[in-house]
Design a protein that fits this description.
The protein is an alpha+beta fold. The protein folds into three domains: 2-178, Rossmann fold (3-Layer(aba) Sandwich); 210-267, Adenine nucleotide alpha hydrolases-like domains (SH3 type barrels), CATH 2.30.30; 271-354, Beta Barrel (Elongation Factor Tu (Ef-tu), domain 3). Helices cover 25% and strands 29% of the residues. The strands form five sheets. It has a six-stranded antiparallel barrel. A five-stranded parallel sheet has the order 5-2-1-6-9, sandwiched between helices. Strand 10 and strand 11 (222-226) form a beta hairpin. 45% of the residues are buried.
Length: 365
């Protein structure tokens, strides 16, 4: 089998490529240049796609004795991931750029080019299992990435290989060291790859400018001010800078973001309780479902798992009634449905219902 190994410059992708070589496949390594200014996108364990990363990927390819190329996807990444990230925050949502990168870059732009060039599949270092088209959680639950892969369609999964799904991260690092790969001890990337300093609010402010507005309670009383509603997410507690303490003395949390009025609504943690979620149209990784069913749903990349009853709306949208209510569910995130460890499909959260008012942003895309 002729495969293209996506090599980010990290330990996971290097070991995934090595295992593809061990399988006897015809392997070519490729590093995706995703930044127009790659020298600015790594600060220690934060960020990725830097010149340093491309050099690390090339050194790994040299050790494995496979051909290696760098493909420039910077413009596509800026349009499909960064611009989408900014637009979603501006609309009052909380996007997941890793999920969007997998959907638009690694398994659309990259996979499309790989197939056009005659490759049979793309190999990546994602921690997830894939067998006979069935996407499942990794054995290393702490590193599982099935959530951010749940946007992939069956025809994309048919041309994907995830060699690390049966291994823990400790085992991957030990294997890299044994193979003489210099990235064996390289820190994992954290946070959002294109915001190397971790300052999401500062990044958004640089893109959208300051937009001063009010922070209010559910009755509309002004409690403070902000430089842009786009800098907040539902469930956020820190960084609110409120001037009026809560009568109860308890912390306040962001309940909703209202982009049209540039208002952030805050309240008690109990007001974040959600028991029903409405989503957009689903992506089914297995067979399409048309009848109601019960499954578990995951609402964030790490955690927020609940059993749920799933029904389809009149226009094919997903409605999830949570059997165990959750707190701080944000629109823009993905709701991923699981049957045990197996991914059923995913949909984007657009509206939540719970203890207080429906948390509907006033600028739905």
């Amino acid at each position: 089998m002729k495969v293209l190994a996506a090599m980010s410059g990290g330990v996971d992708s290097a070991v995934a490529a090595a295992r593809a070589v061990d399988a006897g496949w015809d392997v070519t390594g490729v590093h995706l240049a995703l930044s127009r200014q790659p020298e600015t996108l790594r600060t220690g364990s934060r960020g990725c796609c830097s010149v340093e990363d491309s050099h690390d990927a090339r050194r790994a390819a040299d050790v494995l004795e496979i051909p290696f190329y760098v493909w420039d996807f910077a413009d596509r990444f800026a349009e499909d991931v960064i611009d989408d990230f900014v637009a979603e925050y501006q609309a009052g949502h909380t996007p997941n750029p890793c999920l969007r990168c997998n959907e638009k870059i690694k398994f659309a732009a990259l996979l499309d080019r790989a197939l056009a060039l005659g490759f049979d599949a793309v190999v990546t270092g994602h921690h997830a299992r894939l067998s006979a088209g069935r996407l499942s959680r990794s054995v290393d639950t702490a590193k599982d990435q099935s959530y951010v892969l749940a946007v992939l369609r069956p025809e994309q999964l048919a041309h994907a290989v995830f060699p690390l799904g049966e291994s823990t991260k400790h085992q991957v690092r030990a294997e890299a060291a044994a193979r003489g790969l210099s990235v064996a001890d390289k820190p994992d990337s954290h946070d959002i790859c294109f915001i190397a300093d971790g300052d999401t609010q500062g990044f958004l402010r640089g893109k959208l400018g300051e937009q001063p507005g009010a922070i209010v309670d559910s009755d509309g009383a002004v409690l403070g001010s902000h430089d842009g509603a786009f800098g907040f997410t539902v469930g956020q507690r820190k960084g609110l800078n409120l001037t009026v303490p809560a009568p109860s003395g308890q912390p306040r949390y962001v309940l909703s973001i209202q982009p049209k009025t540039n208002t952030v609504v805050v309240g008690a943690k109990t007001d974040l309780r959600v028991d029903r979620i409405e989503c957009g149209s689903p992506v089914w990784t297995l067979d399409e479902r048309t009848e109601p069913f019960t499954c578990s749903v995951q609402l964030r990349a790490h955690g927020m798992v609940s059993p749920a009853r799933i029904t389809l709306g009149a226009n094919g949208e997903i409605i999830a009634d949570l059997l165990e209510p959750q707190h701080g569910v944000a629109s823009g995130q993905a709701l991923v449905m699981y049957d045990g460890d197996d991914v059923i499909g995913s949909a984007t959260i657009r509206l939540t219902h719970g203890a207080a008012v429906d948390r509907r942003v006033d600028a739905m895309p």
